[in-house]
Structures are given as C-alpha cells and as structure tokens.
Amino acid sequence: MSVGAHPSQPAGTEEYQPVFTEQMLEQLNEILARYPTRQAALLPALWLVQRARGWISDRNMAEVAEVLGLTPAYVKGVVTFYTMYHQHPVGRHFVQVCTTSPCNICGAEAVVQALLEATGAKELGATSPDGKWTVIEVECLGACGFATPVLVDDDFIESVTPDRVPELVRKYK
Amino acid sequence: MVTLTVNGRRVTADAEQTILDAARAAGIADIPTLCWYPKLPIVGNCRICLVSVEGQAKLVPACATKVADGMVVQTESHAAVENRKGVLRLLLERYPGDHLRNGGRAAPRNEFERYVVRYGVAPTPLGARDLALRHGDERPGDPMIRHDMSTCILCTRCVRACEDIQVVGVLDVAQRGEHAEIIVGADGDPDKAGCTWCGECVRVCPTGAIFEVMPQERFAPEQIRQPQRTVRSVCPYCGVGCQVDLHVADDRIMRVTSPDIELDTPNQGSTCVKGRFGYDFPQHHDRLTKPLIRRGWLKQGGHWVWRGPTGAERRGGPWQSIEAEGQTVKPAGPPRAVGKAVRDLPLLERLDMDIRDRVATPAAWYEPFREASWDEAMELTAQELLRIKRERGGDALACFSSAKCTNEENYVMMRMFRGALGTNNIDHCTRLCHSTSVAAMQRALNTSAASGSMREVEHAADVIFIAGANTTESHPVFGAAIKRAHERGATLIVADPRKTELAARADVHLQMQPGTDVALFNAMLNHVITSGLEAKDFVARRTHAFDKLRESVRAMTPEVAAKITGVPAERIREAAEIYARGPNTSTLWAMGLTQHANGTDLVTSLLNLMLACGMIGRWGAAMMPVRGQNNVQGASDVGAIPFVYTDYRSVKDPKVRAEYAKAWDVPAESLSLKEGLMVTEIVKEESGVRGMYIMGENPIISDPDIAHAEHWFRELEFLVVHDLFLTETARYADVVLPGSSFAEKSGTFVNTERRIQLAQRAVDPPGDARRDLDILIDLSNRLGLRTHFATAEAVMGEIVTVTPSWRGVTYPRLEGAGLQYPVPTPGHAGTAFLFDERFPTADGKGTFVPVEYAPPVELPDDQYPFVMNTGRQLYHWHTGTMTRRASGLDQREPTPVVEIHPDDAAQLGLEDGDLVRLTSRRNAMVSSCRISERVARGQVFVPFHFREAAANLLTNPVLDPYAKMAELKCCAVRLEPAHVAVAD
C-alpha cells in the first residue's frame, strides 16, 4: 500500500466519493436487466467499480452492497475470492505476463524483467513512481503457441520478446 | 415412516429426516458435528459427521443424507473413525493446540477440543508446521464481542447464524484457499456492517474464536468453563420472554447463554444484545443493599414522626431536577451507521467520548437518607400507609406495581392494596404501553391479549402487517423471526412514520404522518369494501355492525387519506389488497399506535380492518399487540390494574368481590367496588392521592410532562419506592426498600403470546436487599392482611384458584417451554391460538366499532415546526435504570442522541454529534443529534431512556378518553442548534 494510489481513488481519509453516480447507475441498470436478481449482477457491478476507480476499496464494496441490497461482508467475500479484482491501487496500465512452463521455457522471465525495467515498476506487483504501470505474473493465458503472451489492460499481445518491450511500453501513454 | 438400523439398533424415522436427526431422536447423540448446528442451513463441509452405510462404497455425511428404509448405519466404523481423525488432524494444523499435546487433554476447552480428545488426535507442534495460524477481523476494543481467529476452524456456523437466524449478514468468508478467513463487513467495522451485537455468533462458535469479552475480563477461564451452577430464567427486558440460562460463579452472574435450541421456547436459543450482554446490572455498585429512610423521620415514643424541613424542602436533595439536567451540555454520541447511506459514514470514530458511569447514582443523592433496618423501614411504611388510609380513606393511597416483577409479586401487591388498604388505585406501566390496545380489544372482542403465537407469524403467516412497531429494536428476537418469515416468502407491510429496519426491507412501506393511522386504516377498509375483498362469510357469521362500519369509512377514500397521511393512494390500495387477500395475514402493532391521545381509536380502526378481512382465529392469522415489558401481560393478568382482579374480572361486580374476599379471608365490604385510578390520573392534583407505593417503576422519567410529575411527587405526604437503585423517583421517597433483580428470585412471567414461563433464582440479593415477594408479604402482614406464602409457588397456588383461565397451571408443568394460557383445567396443554370458533363475548361475536379520523392534538406550526416522536433504542431499556448500568450496552449508546433527517439538519446547520435544543409547549432540553435517514423530513426521533435529556420533558400529557394513555408519540417541537448558548 506504500505505492502511489490510483489517481481517481485516494486511499486516505478524504471524504468518500460514491462510484454510482447517475450515469454509473444507468450503466448498472442496463446490466441488471440481464440478470434474474440483483445479487447475480455482483461481478459486473464490481467490474464497473474497478474500471472507474482502478481498484476496489472496502468503501467501494460497502457501496456496491448498498446498491445491490447485499451485505458488505458478502461483497468482500466475492471480491477477495477472485484474483482479477484489485484490492489495492494499481497503475493506470495493468500488465499481466504469462510465466507458466511453456512460456517460461521460451523466455518469459526475461520479458518480465524487461517490463519491470521499461515501465519503472521495478518489482512485481508494485506501481511505477509515475503511477502508470503495475506488472504481475499470471498463470497460463492460453496462448502457449505464441509465447510470451502479455495482457496490457484488455489488450492481448502475443509473442512478446524482451526487445519488443520498450516499443510496447511507449505505445501506452 | 421408514425403519433403519443405527449401530445395531432399529430406529424408525420420518422419511424427510437425515441420518443425524434420526440417530439423535433415537438417543444416539454422539455423531460428532462441527459445521452442522440446529436451525442453520446444512452445508456439509466439515466432513466430521461422515458415517458408514452398508452397501455404499464411500462414507456419507450424516447431517446431509436422508434416511431410507432398511438402511444400516455404523456411526463409529473403522472407516468413519479414521476419517474423523484425518479431519481433526487437518483442522489442528491451523489450531493453536500445543496444550493438547500434554495436560490440556484432561480439560478440553471447547466443543472442537472435545472431539480432538475423544478421537485421540495430537496436533503437530506449533514450530513444526507449514502454515501460520489464521487471523481475521478482531473487533478490537469491542465492549461485548471479540474475535481470536487463530482458533477458527472455518466451520462457518457464525456466518450462517448471522445470515440465516438473525438475518443480518455481518460475517462472511473472504479470501480463498489457505488464506480463507472470517471477516466483519467490508472493513472490519461491525457497526457499518449492521451488527446488532446479538451474540448469535458467540453462541454457535465451537472453538471460542468468537467470544464474549465481559466474562473473560471478570472471571478465570476455569470458572467460565465450569460455572458453579446454571439456572434457567427469563430475560428481564422485552415481552418476547426469551428463556436464558444464567451461569453463576462467586454468587454473581458470570454470563448468559440461551437454552438448547430444540426446546420449544419463544426464542429457540436466540437472544438479542440486551438478553445476552445486559445481565451485569444486578452486580452494579449502585445496587441498594440496605433500606433507606429520609433523614427527618424519627421514632419518638414508639411512633414515627417527621422532624425534617417542610414545604419545598420536605423532599429536597443535592441534585438537579430532570428539567435542569435537560439544559446541560452533553457529549456527542458515538457515530452510527444505522439509517445512513454509505457515503455518509464517518471515517474515524470520535474520540471525545467519556462514557462510563455517568448515569450511576451520584454519591450526593444518598445524602438525604440514612441507612435503616428492615424493621424500621417496614414499620414506618406500614404506619404511614395506615395513617393515610385512616385519615383520608383508602383512595388517598395508590400503587404503581411493576411489569418487571413476577406474577406472584404483582398478585401479592394487588392483594395487599385491595385487601389491606381497600383501594383499587393500583396500576403499572401498561398504562403507558398497551392500555389502549386492551381498551380497543375489550370493546371489539372482550379480550385483552394476543390471539396467536410468535411462531405462527414466523412459520405460517402469508402476510405480516406491522403498524407502529420497531420490532427489530424493541423486540429483536421476534424481529429476527419476522425477517426469517420474510425470507421464507411472507409479504411484509409496514406502517410507520420512520424508516425502521423492517420498513426498509418491507414489500410495502406506508410512511404516514404521525398519528394519522385511523385515516390510513379506514382508507384501506374503504378500498377493501369497494373492491369486495372483505371476508363476507366471516363478517356475517362472527361479527356485528358491519353496516355501520361500511357507512363510517365510505368517505375515507384512498385519495382523501393520501392527503392526510402523505401516503400515495395507490400504495394504500396495494397494501389493502395484499392484506385482504392473505390468505393468512398476521397483524402486529405496538407503541406507534397505542401511545396517542386517541390510541384506543387507532387500535380500533386496525381491529376493524382485521375483522373485516377475517384475519384472526386461524394458524397464521394472528392478532398480536407486541407487549413491551417482560411481564406487562402477566401484571395485568393477575390484576395489577385498577378495574379488575385476576383474569380481567371486574372490581365492580359484588359476586366477583365475594370470591376474592373469601380467598383472602377478609370481609367483602373491605374490598372497594369503585374502579381505581390509572397511572396518568394518579399523577394529577385532582386525584386526591397523598401516599404512594412504587415498586420497580420510575415515573419521573416515564410520565409525560416530567416537570409537572416531578413537582407532584414532591408534594406527596408519603412515598415508598421499592427498587434496585436509587432512581430519579426514589430520591424523593421517604422510604426506599432495596428489592431483588430477576436473577435473585423465582417466579413466573407472561410473554406477549400469553406464555407463562418459570424463572428460577440464580443468586442472592446483595447485602440486606430482600426478595420482592418477601417484602410484600411482610408488609401485607404489617398492614393487617394475613399473608402466609412460603414460596412463589405457594402464591401461584392461590392465583390459580381465583383465575379460571390459569387453573391448570402448576410450577412443575411450567418447566421447559411454559404454558400458553388459557389453561382452564389440570393437564390442559395450553392454547397456542384463540378464537377459531367464537370470541369471548356474550354471543360469541365480535363488534365493529366505527371510528373517525381526528388529527393529533398538536400539529406542527410556525412556532413548533417539527413533529417529535419518541421510542426505544436497541441498546437501552425504558428509563435506563438497568441498561445504563449494564456496561456493554451503555458503551454502545452512552449519551442521549436525537435523530434528525439530513435535509433538516442541513437547514438547521447541524452536523452529526452537534448539540440541539428541543422546545415544546411544555419544556425544553438539549441533546446531541445523529443525522439519519430513518426519520422523515420534519420529524425528530427522541429516545426516552435518558435522564439528562428526558424525552418526557417535552411530551404532551393530554389523555386518551378510554385508556388514559398520554400522547407520548406525537407533539410539536422547535429545534435550534445549541452550540454555545447552553449554560452549564
């Protein structure tokens, strides 16, 4: 938590800014229409929060609970069960590198090192001082024939090698 | 029914039962369980109850496998035992069990450790383990419940108890795999997660990971594990009548648990925060341990004479009046999440709270008194009561009996006042409670109690209609049952000006203006009748005067009512249709209806709706006035009210009188045929009452318009107060008699569903304090009424002879779940619900009593623009005499707070915790405020528990014409910020 907070979501004690403003509630209502109960819409509702704020704080969880008529503890149980919801601030760009066996054999670790250098994040899971980047290792991304696959936010990039990394990083502002 | 074999024994069972149920029912009770618990949903995740079933390759979970005909079960087969050892070994990997490697095995600390010992499993030494001990939210600093999750075995009983029994959902499991842990809300703060501190999680936890703080701070672990004795009693708070077990050590109550859930008690093992944690007031250092006599009373020549000051100083003392205390500065109350949107929640708890012992009796209050012997105190009391009777007649005396005392005590009290003092001036707090309900029910149905049971509301009602009852705070255990009913699919309609917890979860919330209930119910009736939804057959067969009723509600269309109540006409129609269609609608109401100057009419209009729809006399269609005090029903049943003897038999009837004269061995003429005065009539100059005996009541906080009441009590010739503490009322007494708390006596209480329950003595009264019954028997004899009861049981022996509907009641029969009266004959099983065929009227029919809407006496105006509503908080009880001396409860709500709507607060420039001055036409007082969306705009909610900001300074003493109830729920007030303008 010592890393820089996501710009839109201060981690301190400032006054809480609700996520579900009018416009966000509209989006939520569209989602709700697709599900039989409000509870069933929890996962997409959490995605809305994560997209808006970069990560999901305890207060966000309480707000989601209130909006969907669930208990805060239940929401936290769900958030913490899934690894793809961030419970801490992350960089504006979230990079996931596959380091499972086939990719590892093809040099995934070197890709990771290159990414940590090029982004300035330095350490896995940490956020670069400019608040732009967080890099983590993940298990199989399902592209073993195109090692090493990298996910930058929602972009799936195949066959990444250490020398392609600086260019890749430049593409994301 | 199917037949199976368990451990070689033939067992018959219902086909829907599980192996576990069937085995336990047959007395094979030792199948171990961890995640299974009575009443909780079955999850089958702990795998310790696995048993062998012949012909099945794998072990099966006994808790989750239904029985089958011919099944052959071995509960302790080699495979089952080996599996259990494996399960326990795995759980021990994350359990701090080093003590179980050595001497600790001799004294297992909890349910889990008992299994570890039973199956001979030893934990790996702590240092040799791969996994660290578990952690989780600890509730640091919590006054009542804390967590030590290192002993958690993740059975999730607590999660399900909170979610499925209490229907709150504070707890859940978070993280995954080896990191899984129990969490409190999203951020570890139980308050924001809606916790009510009921302690259900404590009750179900098999390892003590969730534990009560208070016993641990006061008693040694061995004492807690092995209490000297455990005594069955009845909770001393609300009318639900929860059975509780008092654990005793060193002649003190150590902790409270609730009896085995499978027994058919009203609470089924649950309690609320007051029941589980509000038990330490009997041991508070403020307890009176010796009788007190006001200095100034001297015994001269064998006679007591007053030699103290006269006039205004006669009952003076070094204290502020309640009125003056109302003006002083108060600390801000702790912030609360209840009724707030998440965006309004405070981030940091306020730290400026000094909370302990502020209400404890100030030492100076004892100064006007001297300690006395029982003989002196009783002699003086008897002398003065008899003197006033002699000089001014019996009707110059009056008595407030107590809904916190047992039936036996109330009976002996009323026997003493009627038999020895010849007056019917005996009443108790029912007057300020359900007296209007009784008046209305008497008028319509000639009955005085609920027709049904709480468990039928929980299990059988299709629709639950709640009017003016904040059940989850005032009767929390019943409130949880209502929430469970709602979860099971019952439709919930709540009529309440406030957005209470139940209102917020209701299918229809009728949020009307205070005091406009008659318009609301009449409009619902109007719609029922115009839509032809009335129960035509029921109305024709079982009621009178429906035509008159139809006429009377014709003009009150939903549109007209919408203007009066503020509830949209469509919603009124919707509620009316749901109510009438049922098929079984239960009708609940409480103080929101009764505490009005037209409370009788309010209840009457609800009864009209109920009768017109035929929603009474079937299982699931209950009429339930939810009673407030734990024995307000019983105190009335045994005649501690001014118009009737036991069983509501009129004091005006000479035949009835003769019966009691015979039972009490007094001349018939000594019993008055004149109905007595009621609480609210007694405290008036014109009542002519000059001497009073008050047992366990505190009218100087509970009566409307306190400033007047305080003055009135000071003017009395003689005042005896019989209580646990030197209350605000007792400080004006001539004699104060130290009585006994619920834990210090045996006796019976009647709950809100007419259930007579037995409470047993757990500890002795402190010091020279005496059992209440002994005090009353002693005084009766001194007043010349021969009274020789050795025990409470002997008193019950006399009660049943003069109470036809209790005739079959005996103490042995009350053990266990008690009996719901009527119990008219010996051996009668009691009556779960009434009126399936007839009402107890002369012709068996009920009567519609048309009532017209009348606005509340005080409506808001330019000068007093807010409507003030009064009521209870979850953590406090009435005048706070008990709960403000219960350390856990008092820490939750240590100081008065009034609730204000955010918009009103913004307009007044008030923030959470600011001081606000409330002024009504009677008086003014200062309190801190809490901003909450539970109150509507233009309204303010004032709890009545606090001496330093007494709601009743402001309330309107205007009375209901029938029941003499005061307008406690509704008066007009002005609010102003009181940041600086408060004189200390």
Short structural description:
The complex is a heterodimer of chains A (173) and B (984). With 173 residues, chain A is an alpha+beta fold.
CATH superfamily of the largest domain in chain A, called what? NADH-quinone oxidoreductase subunit E
Query: What class would the helix/strand composition of chain A place it in?
Result: alpha+beta
Tell me which CATH architecture of the largest domain in chain B applies here.
3-Layer(aba) Sandwich
By CATH reckoning, the class of the largest domain in chain B would read: Alpha Beta
Give, in order, the helices and strands of chain A: HHHHEHHEEEH
Count the domains of chain B.
5
Beta-strand content of chain A: 5-15%
The strand count of chain B comes to: 39
Most residues in contact, chain pair and counts: A-B, 21 and 24 residues
- Spatial sequence of strands, sheet with the most strands of chain B: 16-13-27-26-25-17-18
Separate helix tally of chain A? 7
Distance between the termini of chain A: 24 Å
Mean pLDDT of chain A: 90
Query: What would you call the quaternary organization?
Result: heterodimer
CATH-scheme architecture of the largest domain in chain A: Orthogonal Bundle
Q: Provide the residue-averaged pLDDT of chain B.
A: 93
Structural class of chain B: alpha/beta
CATH topology of the largest domain in chain A: Arc Repressor Mutant, subunit A
Q: N- to C-terminal separation of chain B?
A: 75 Å
Main-sheet strand order of chain A equals 2-1-3-4
